[in-house]
Amino acid sequence: MLKRLIQTVSLCCYLYFVPAWSQSITERFSADPSPHYFQTAKGGQFYLYATDDASNSGKYWDSVAWRLYTSSDMRHWRDAGVPLDVTVFKWARPDAKAWAPEAAYRNGKYYFYAPIGGDKIGVAVADNPAGPFVDARSDALVDKARDANAGAEPIDPAVFVDRDGQAYLYFGTRVPKVVRLKPDMVTLDGPILDVTIQGWPASDPKKKYGEAPFLHEHGGRYYFSFSTGWPGQIVYATAASPLGPFSYRGVVLDYLPISTNHQAIIEHEGRSWLFYHNNLLPGGGDYRRAIAIAPLEYDADGAIRQVVLSSN
Ligand code: FUB
Protein backbone atom coordinates (compact mmCIF):
# COMPACT_ATOMS: atom_id res chain seq x y z
CA MET A 1 0.00 0.00 0.00
CA LEU A 2 2.80 2.40 1.04
CA LYS A 3 4.78 1.40 -2.05
CA ARG A 4 1.76 2.13 -4.27
CA LEU A 5 1.25 5.51 -2.56
CA ILE A 6 4.90 6.45 -3.08
CA GLN A 7 4.68 5.38 -6.73
CA THR A 8 1.52 7.42 -7.26
CA VAL A 9 2.94 10.53 -5.57
CA SER A 10 6.22 10.33 -7.48
CA LEU A 11 4.37 9.86 -10.76
CA CYS A 12 2.14 12.88 -10.03
CA CYS A 13 5.19 15.02 -9.12
CA TYR A 14 6.90 13.83 -12.21
CA LEU A 15 3.99 14.72 -14.48
CA TYR A 16 3.52 18.05 -12.73
CA PHE A 17 7.12 19.15 -12.97
CA VAL A 18 7.80 17.76 -16.43
CA PRO A 19 4.59 18.43 -18.32
CA ALA A 20 6.43 18.65 -21.63
CA TRP A 21 7.09 14.93 -21.49
CA SER A 22 3.45 14.15 -21.96
CA GLN A 23 3.13 16.91 -24.54
CA SER A 24 5.34 17.14 -27.59
CA ILE A 25 8.99 16.28 -27.79
CA THR A 26 10.10 18.72 -30.40
CA GLU A 27 8.96 21.68 -32.35
CA ARG A 28 8.80 19.63 -35.52
CA PHE A 29 5.79 17.62 -36.68
CA SER A 30 6.67 13.95 -36.54
CA ALA A 31 4.88 10.70 -35.78
CA ASP A 32 5.09 6.91 -35.45
CA PRO A 33 7.88 6.87 -32.85
CA SER A 34 10.57 4.19 -32.94
CA PRO A 35 12.70 4.87 -29.85
CA HIS A 36 15.93 3.04 -28.99
CA TYR A 37 18.82 3.39 -26.59
CA PHE A 38 21.97 2.67 -28.57
CA GLN A 39 25.49 2.45 -27.18
CA THR A 40 28.15 3.62 -29.61
CA ALA A 41 31.86 4.39 -29.28
CA LYS A 42 30.83 7.93 -28.31
CA GLY A 43 28.59 6.66 -25.48
CA GLY A 44 24.94 5.79 -25.08
CA GLN A 45 21.97 7.90 -26.02
CA PHE A 46 18.38 7.64 -27.20
CA TYR A 47 17.67 7.58 -30.91
CA LEU A 48 14.11 8.28 -31.97
CA TYR A 49 13.24 7.51 -35.60
CA ALA A 50 9.98 8.95 -36.92
CA THR A 51 7.70 9.60 -39.84
CA ASP A 52 8.35 13.21 -40.87
CA ASP A 53 5.03 15.03 -40.90
CA ALA A 54 6.76 18.42 -41.27
CA SER A 55 7.74 17.63 -44.86
CA ASN A 56 4.41 16.16 -46.02
CA SER A 57 1.80 18.07 -48.01
CA GLY A 58 -0.37 18.63 -44.96
CA LYS A 59 -3.14 16.75 -46.78
CA TYR A 60 -1.76 13.23 -46.55
CA TRP A 61 1.12 11.26 -45.04
CA ASP A 62 3.17 11.71 -48.19
CA SER A 63 6.62 12.61 -46.90
CA VAL A 64 9.45 10.74 -48.63
CA ALA A 65 11.97 11.05 -45.78
CA TRP A 66 12.25 9.88 -42.19
CA ARG A 67 13.49 11.99 -39.29
CA LEU A 68 15.82 11.25 -36.40
CA TYR A 69 15.95 12.86 -32.93
CA THR A 70 18.54 12.15 -30.27
CA SER A 71 18.58 12.69 -26.53
CA SER A 72 20.73 11.78 -23.57
CA ASP A 73 17.88 12.06 -21.04
CA MET A 74 14.56 11.86 -22.96
CA ARG A 75 13.84 15.42 -21.80
CA HIS A 76 15.89 17.38 -24.28
CA TRP A 77 15.75 16.22 -27.87
CA ARG A 78 17.98 17.28 -30.73
CA ASP A 79 16.72 17.20 -34.29
CA ALA A 80 19.39 15.06 -35.97
CA GLY A 81 17.94 15.51 -39.45
CA VAL A 82 17.22 12.93 -42.14
CA PRO A 83 18.83 9.53 -41.50
CA LEU A 84 17.61 8.39 -44.93
CA ASP A 85 14.90 8.88 -47.51
CA VAL A 86 13.22 6.57 -50.00
CA THR A 87 15.86 7.21 -52.70
CA VAL A 88 18.22 4.93 -50.71
CA PHE A 89 16.08 2.10 -52.13
CA LYS A 90 16.65 2.06 -55.88
CA TRP A 91 13.66 -0.28 -56.37
CA ALA A 92 11.29 2.30 -54.84
CA ARG A 93 9.61 5.19 -56.61
CA PRO A 94 11.27 8.42 -55.44
CA ASP A 95 7.84 9.84 -54.56
CA ALA A 96 6.72 6.76 -52.60
CA LYS A 97 5.42 7.59 -49.14
CA ALA A 98 7.74 6.92 -46.21
CA TRP A 99 5.75 5.67 -43.24
CA ALA A 100 6.30 4.40 -39.70
CA PRO A 101 9.96 3.30 -39.44
CA GLU A 102 11.75 0.84 -37.19
CA ALA A 103 15.40 0.36 -36.23
CA ALA A 104 17.39 -2.45 -34.64
CA TYR A 105 20.98 -3.17 -33.62
CA ARG A 106 22.84 -6.43 -34.12
CA ASN A 107 26.48 -7.46 -34.39
CA GLY A 108 27.85 -3.94 -34.70
CA LYS A 109 25.36 -2.85 -37.38
CA TYR A 110 22.24 -0.71 -37.26
CA TYR A 111 19.25 -1.76 -39.34
CA PHE A 112 16.45 0.51 -40.52
CA TYR A 113 13.13 -1.05 -41.56
CA ALA A 114 11.35 1.21 -44.00
CA PRO A 115 7.72 0.82 -45.10
CA ILE A 116 7.53 2.34 -48.56
CA GLY A 117 4.52 3.11 -50.72
CA GLY A 118 2.17 1.02 -48.56
CA ASP A 119 3.10 -2.25 -50.23
CA LYS A 120 6.75 -2.96 -49.42
CA ILE A 121 9.15 -2.93 -46.49
CA GLY A 122 12.79 -2.20 -47.24
CA VAL A 123 15.77 -2.67 -44.95
CA ALA A 124 18.85 -0.46 -44.85
CA VAL A 125 22.04 -0.85 -42.84
CA ALA A 126 24.60 1.52 -41.31
CA ASP A 127 27.65 1.46 -39.05
CA ASN A 128 26.21 4.33 -37.04
CA PRO A 129 22.63 4.77 -35.77
CA ALA A 130 22.49 8.19 -37.43
CA GLY A 131 23.56 6.75 -40.77
CA PRO A 132 24.54 6.97 -43.52
CA PHE A 133 22.22 4.06 -44.32
CA VAL A 134 22.49 2.02 -47.51
CA ASP A 135 20.08 -0.56 -48.90
CA ALA A 136 20.92 -3.89 -47.26
CA ARG A 137 19.44 -5.82 -50.20
CA SER A 138 18.66 -5.08 -53.81
CA ASP A 139 14.93 -5.61 -53.33
CA ALA A 140 12.30 -5.28 -50.63
CA LEU A 141 12.43 -7.39 -47.46
CA VAL A 142 8.63 -7.79 -47.65
CA ASP A 143 6.74 -7.26 -50.89
CA LYS A 144 2.96 -7.53 -51.13
CA ALA A 145 3.21 -8.68 -54.76
CA ARG A 146 5.90 -11.28 -54.07
CA ASP A 147 5.42 -12.75 -50.60
CA ALA A 148 2.63 -15.15 -49.66
CA ASN A 149 0.49 -13.87 -46.77
CA ALA A 150 2.11 -10.39 -46.75
CA GLY A 151 -1.40 -8.99 -46.33
CA ALA A 152 -3.19 -6.09 -47.96
CA GLU A 153 -0.86 -3.45 -46.59
CA PRO A 154 2.57 -4.50 -45.32
CA ILE A 155 3.44 -1.39 -43.31
CA ASP A 156 4.39 -0.47 -39.73
CA PRO A 157 7.38 -2.82 -39.23
CA ALA A 158 8.41 -3.57 -35.66
CA VAL A 159 11.40 -5.76 -34.81
CA PHE A 160 11.83 -7.73 -31.60
CA VAL A 161 15.01 -9.66 -30.78
CA ASP A 162 14.39 -12.28 -28.10
CA ARG A 163 16.87 -13.26 -25.38
CA ASP A 164 17.78 -16.38 -27.39
CA GLY A 165 18.82 -14.16 -30.32
CA GLN A 166 15.83 -14.99 -32.53
CA ALA A 167 14.58 -11.84 -34.30
CA TYR A 168 10.96 -11.34 -35.32
CA LEU A 169 9.42 -8.81 -37.70
CA TYR A 170 5.83 -7.71 -37.03
CA PHE A 171 3.88 -5.60 -39.51
CA GLY A 172 0.54 -5.06 -41.21
CA THR A 173 -2.82 -3.35 -41.10
CA ARG A 174 -6.12 -5.06 -40.25
CA VAL A 175 -4.44 -8.46 -39.90
CA PRO A 176 -1.23 -8.45 -37.84
CA LYS A 177 1.66 -10.41 -39.33
CA VAL A 178 4.83 -11.90 -37.90
CA VAL A 179 7.81 -13.57 -39.55
CA ARG A 180 11.15 -14.74 -38.19
CA LEU A 181 14.28 -12.95 -39.41
CA LYS A 182 17.54 -14.74 -40.07
CA PRO A 183 20.52 -13.66 -37.90
CA ASP A 184 21.62 -11.34 -40.74
CA MET A 185 18.47 -9.29 -39.95
CA VAL A 186 17.82 -8.71 -43.65
CA THR A 187 16.34 -12.08 -44.72
CA LEU A 188 12.99 -13.61 -43.85
CA ASP A 189 13.27 -17.00 -42.19
CA GLY A 190 10.15 -19.05 -42.89
CA PRO A 191 6.59 -18.15 -43.75
CA ILE A 192 4.74 -14.96 -42.85
CA LEU A 193 2.20 -15.90 -40.16
CA ASP A 194 -0.95 -14.20 -38.90
CA VAL A 195 -0.72 -13.07 -35.27
CA THR A 196 -3.60 -14.59 -33.31
CA ILE A 197 -5.29 -12.52 -30.61
CA GLN A 198 -7.89 -14.25 -28.43
CA GLY A 199 -10.34 -13.04 -25.83
CA TRP A 200 -11.52 -9.75 -27.28
CA PRO A 201 -14.18 -8.13 -25.06
CA ALA A 202 -17.41 -9.12 -26.81
CA SER A 203 -19.12 -5.98 -25.51
CA ASP A 204 -16.94 -3.65 -27.59
CA PRO A 205 -17.09 -4.14 -31.38
CA LYS A 206 -14.44 -1.44 -31.83
CA LYS A 207 -11.83 -3.70 -30.25
CA LYS A 208 -10.04 -5.08 -33.25
CA TYR A 209 -6.56 -4.96 -34.66
CA GLY A 210 -5.92 -1.90 -36.83
CA GLU A 211 -2.22 -1.16 -37.24
CA ALA A 212 0.99 -0.26 -35.38
CA PRO A 213 2.06 -3.69 -34.05
CA PHE A 214 4.74 -3.59 -31.37
CA LEU A 215 6.26 -6.34 -29.27
CA HIS A 216 8.15 -6.02 -26.01
CA GLU A 217 9.00 -8.35 -23.17
CA HIS A 218 8.52 -7.62 -19.48
CA GLY A 219 8.90 -10.00 -16.59
CA GLY A 220 9.11 -13.01 -18.89
CA ARG A 221 5.84 -12.16 -20.71
CA TYR A 222 5.53 -11.03 -24.30
CA TYR A 223 3.36 -7.93 -24.78
CA PHE A 224 1.85 -7.27 -28.19
CA SER A 225 0.50 -3.72 -28.40
CA PHE A 226 -1.18 -2.05 -31.33
CA SER A 227 -3.69 0.56 -32.46
CA THR A 228 -7.30 -0.50 -32.97
CA GLY A 229 -7.63 1.58 -36.12
CA TRP A 230 -8.77 5.02 -37.26
CA PRO A 231 -9.05 6.62 -34.76
CA GLY A 232 -7.00 4.22 -32.73
CA GLN A 233 -7.08 3.19 -29.14
CA ILE A 234 -3.76 1.67 -28.07
CA VAL A 235 -4.43 -1.76 -26.54
CA TYR A 236 -2.38 -4.82 -25.71
CA ALA A 237 -2.40 -8.59 -25.47
CA THR A 238 0.08 -10.97 -23.85
CA ALA A 239 1.51 -14.40 -24.62
CA ALA A 240 4.14 -16.86 -23.46
CA SER A 241 5.81 -16.76 -26.88
CA PRO A 242 6.63 -13.95 -29.38
CA LEU A 243 4.55 -15.89 -31.89
CA GLY A 244 1.50 -16.00 -29.64
CA PRO A 245 -1.31 -16.88 -29.43
CA PHE A 246 -1.92 -13.61 -27.57
CA SER A 247 -4.72 -12.94 -25.10
CA TYR A 248 -6.34 -9.52 -25.06
CA ARG A 249 -5.54 -7.70 -21.79
CA GLY A 250 -6.70 -4.07 -22.00
CA VAL A 251 -6.14 -0.46 -22.94
CA VAL A 252 -2.75 1.26 -22.82
CA LEU A 253 -3.87 4.66 -24.11
CA ASP A 254 -7.41 5.75 -24.94
CA TYR A 255 -8.51 7.41 -28.17
CA LEU A 256 -7.00 10.84 -28.81
CA PRO A 257 -8.69 13.39 -31.08
CA ILE A 258 -6.55 12.42 -34.05
CA SER A 259 -7.08 9.98 -36.93
CA THR A 260 -4.20 7.64 -36.06
CA ASN A 261 -2.06 6.64 -33.17
CA HIS A 262 1.10 4.59 -33.09
CA GLN A 263 2.95 3.49 -29.96
CA ALA A 264 6.26 2.07 -28.82
CA ILE A 265 7.24 0.94 -25.32
CA ILE A 266 10.80 0.95 -24.02
CA GLU A 267 12.41 0.18 -20.69
CA HIS A 268 15.48 2.02 -19.51
CA GLU A 269 17.17 1.86 -16.13
CA GLY A 270 14.20 0.11 -14.54
CA ARG A 271 11.51 2.43 -15.82
CA SER A 272 9.12 2.02 -18.71
CA TRP A 273 7.98 4.64 -21.17
CA LEU A 274 5.19 4.88 -23.70
CA PHE A 275 5.89 6.80 -26.89
CA TYR A 276 2.91 7.79 -29.04
CA HIS A 277 1.76 10.73 -31.13
CA ASN A 278 -0.84 13.45 -30.69
CA ASN A 279 -2.00 16.67 -32.35
CA LEU A 280 -0.79 19.09 -29.70
CA LEU A 281 1.77 21.20 -31.52
CA PRO A 282 0.34 24.52 -32.76
CA GLY A 283 -1.15 23.84 -36.20
CA GLY A 284 -1.29 20.13 -35.40
CA GLY A 285 -3.82 17.69 -36.82
CA ASP A 286 -4.27 14.34 -38.56
CA TYR A 287 -1.36 14.93 -40.93
CA ARG A 288 0.64 17.18 -38.60
CA ARG A 289 1.34 14.95 -35.65
CA ALA A 290 3.76 15.30 -32.76
CA ILE A 291 5.52 12.67 -30.70
CA ALA A 292 4.96 12.50 -26.96
CA ILE A 293 6.19 10.35 -24.06
CA ALA A 294 4.46 9.21 -20.88
CA PRO A 295 5.59 6.98 -18.02
CA LEU A 296 4.22 3.45 -18.18
CA GLU A 297 3.58 1.27 -15.14
CA TYR A 298 2.63 -2.34 -14.49
CA ASP A 299 0.54 -3.93 -11.78
CA ALA A 300 2.02 -6.80 -9.80
CA ASP A 301 0.22 -9.31 -12.04
CA GLY A 302 1.89 -7.84 -15.12
CA ALA A 303 -1.13 -5.84 -16.30
CA ILE A 304 -0.23 -2.51 -17.90
CA ARG A 305 -1.85 0.40 -16.07
CA GLN A 306 -3.75 2.52 -18.57
CA VAL A 307 -1.91 5.78 -19.24
CA VAL A 308 -4.17 8.69 -18.39
CA LEU A 309 -3.09 12.01 -19.85
CA SER A 310 -3.72 15.35 -18.23
CA SER A 311 -4.49 16.96 -21.59
CA ASN A 312 -5.65 15.92 -25.07
O1 FUB B 1 2.35 7.69 -40.71
C1 FUB B 1 1.52 6.99 -41.62
C2 FUB B 1 0.70 5.94 -40.93
O2 FUB B 1 -0.13 6.53 -39.94
C3 FUB B 1 1.48 4.89 -40.17
O3 FUB B 1 2.04 3.91 -40.97
C4 FUB B 1 0.45 4.38 -39.24
O4 FUB B 1 0.96 3.64 -38.17
C5 FUB B 1 -0.27 5.64 -38.84
O5 FUB B 1 0.32 6.22 -37.70
Automatic annotation (TrEMBL):
InterPro entries: Glyco_hydro_43 (IPR006710), Glyco_hydro_beta-prop_sf (IPR023296), Glycosyl_Hydrlase_43_Enz (IPR052176)
Keyword flag Hydrolase: yes
The keyword tRNA processing belongs to this UniProt entry's keyword annotation: no
Pfam family for this entry, one: Glyco_hydro_43
Site-annotated residues for Important for catalytic activity, responsible for pKa modulation of the active site Glu and correct orientation of both the proton donor and substrate: 156
A GO biological-process term: xylan catabolic process
Gene3D superfamilies recorded: Glycosyl hydrolase domain, family 43
UniProt KW keywords: Carbohydrate metabolism, Glycosidase, Hydrolase, Polysaccharide degradation, Signal, Xylan degradation
Family: Belongs to the glycosyl hydrolase 43 family.
PANTHER family in the cross-refs: ENDO-1,4-BETA-XYLANASE, PUTATIVE (AFU_ORTHOLOGUE AFUA_2G04480)-RELATED
Name this protein carries in UniProt: Family 43 glycosylhydrolase
Organism encoding this protein: Duganella guangzhouensis
